[in-house]
From TrEMBL:
This is Amino acid transporter. It comes from the Eukaryota. Signal peptide: none annotated. The chain crosses the membrane at residues 47-68, 80-102, 186-205, 217-244, 264-287. GO terms for molecular function: glutamate:sodium symporter activity; L-glutamate transmembrane transporter activity; neutral L-amino acid transmembrane transporter activity. One of its GO terms (cellular component) is plasma membrane. SUPFAM superfamilies: Proton glutamate symport protein (SSF118215). The gene is LOC105360545. Its main location: membrane.
Length: 389
């Protein structure tokens, strides 16, 4: 009897979630309350929590076990980092070009003509300095407490001095504000990745007799965690039904003008993602290897569908590794590059966030130059590196 593959089951779950959400939305007279939505999404919430619980040990054990081979780790790590920076930069450039060509924020735009003279004269309050964000990135790379790094991230906070709280001192510069800090909730993946990498490299300097017990422990633990995640992922087709249907019910009705903006924005993002995934990345692959990239795209289909259904790149790491193994990639390479890329590489979010920022400025009647668009994007990139999951 025919049985659909795992990616097909997840895709069917996504479609079923969309259908269920639309049916519940238009067949119920009253909008759903937050409590009702919480009940509906509860199975999906449990699924995401189970995956998130296993992602951190999977990433740590994968990087330690793979980087313990000192000869391969250095060259592979440098090549991978160069690739990630290159593709993210290409994604940013593509998003800026598409935003300037399509101009989604100006499609049948809102009538803001009366407000534009005021809007252009208003200087928004800037609550951060780019240098602070970059320094926070370095601080998070070198955590002072590994246990705390599993739970929180360092963030610089600028506050106005007490003596400047009066209205006549509201123009105080951000450079003159008091510098404090806080730890925000969320795993410091960057710091843990670097610590795991250093630990693995140090392990690789030892003799085979000395390193094998510890190396074998991490390899075995990584295999066990990957197997458990495979069990959890089997529940994804059912879980995504509840996740997607809840998101559909949370979405708000839009008027014709808002819908025109939404269609333009979503269309620009999808066009950018399609060009990046189907043209830019395959071209980079072809230039680097000389082989056809489209055979690879077909082979990694399960990872793509899994990522779309769970909305998590790190949760897709086991599926990605399995796809790479089927392609004949060296296991030591796949177990190092896959978790590293899932936490560092940011092509999609870089493209999406750039288009979103330019879209908002266009809607408000502000016309950014190409240089200003690039400056905004790279400022935002440092913030994302500090806050990504």
């Amino acid at each position: 009897m025919w049985r659909p593959s795992a990616p097909a089951r997840i895709l069917l779950g996504i479609l079923a979630g969309l259908a269920l959400g639309l049916a519940l939305r238009y067949w119920t007279a009253q909008p759903w309350s937050e409590r009702e939505l919480m009940y509906l999404q509860f199975p999906g919430e449990i699924f995401i929590q189970m995956v998130n619980c296993l992602v951190l040990p999977l990433v740590v054990t994968s990087i330690v076990s793979a980087s313990s081979d000192l000869g391969k780790s250095g060259s592979i790590g440098i090549k991978a980092l160069y690739y990630y920076i290159t593709t993210t930069s290409l994604g940013i450039t593509l998003s800026i070009l598409l935003s300037q060509i399509i101009r989604p924020g100006q499609w049948d735009s809102f009538d803001l003509s009366a407000d534009k003279s005021n809007i252009t004269n208003v200087k928004p309050r800037i609550n951060f300095v780019t240098a602070d964000v970059f320094l926070d990135l370095l601080r998070n790379l070198y955590p002072d407490n590994l246990i705390r790094a599993c739970l929180s991230q360092y963030q610089t906070v600028l506050v106005e001095p007490k003596q400047s709280a009066s209205s006549e001192n509201m123009g105080i510069s951000t450079y003159d504000m008091d510098i404090t800090y806080r730890y925000t909730q969320g795993t410091n993946i960057l710091g843990l990745v670097l610590c795991s990498l250093v630990f693995g490299l140090a392990l690789g300097t030892m003799s085979d007799e000395q390193k094998w017990p510890l190396q074998g422990f991490f390899i075995g633990l990584n295999t066990v965690i990957a197997e458990i995640i495979e069990w959890v992922i089997k529940s994804a087709p059912i879980s995504v039904v509840f996740l997607i249907s809840g998101k559909v019910l949370r979405s708000e009705e839009s008027g014709a003008t808002e819908m025109a903006h939404l269609v333009a924005f979503v269309g620009t993002v999808l066009a950018g993602l399609a060009i990046q995934a189907l043209l830019v990345l395959p071209l980079v692959f072809f230039i680097s290897t000389g082989h056809s990239p489209y055979r690879i795209l077909g082979a990694i289909g399960p990872a793509l569908v899994n990522a779309f259904g769970t909305s998590s790149s790190t949760a897709t790491v086991p599926t990605t590794i399995r796809c790479l193994d089927k392609l004949g990639v060296d296991p030591q390479v796949s177990r190092f590059v896959a978790p590293f890329g899932a936490t560092i590489n940011m092509d999609g979010i870089a493209l999406y966030e750039t288009i979103g920022a330019i879209f908002i400025t266009q809607m408000r009647g502000l016309d950014l130059s190409l240089v200003e668009s690039i400056a905004i994007r790279y400022d935002k990139l440092f913030i994302e590196l500090n806050q990504f999951y």
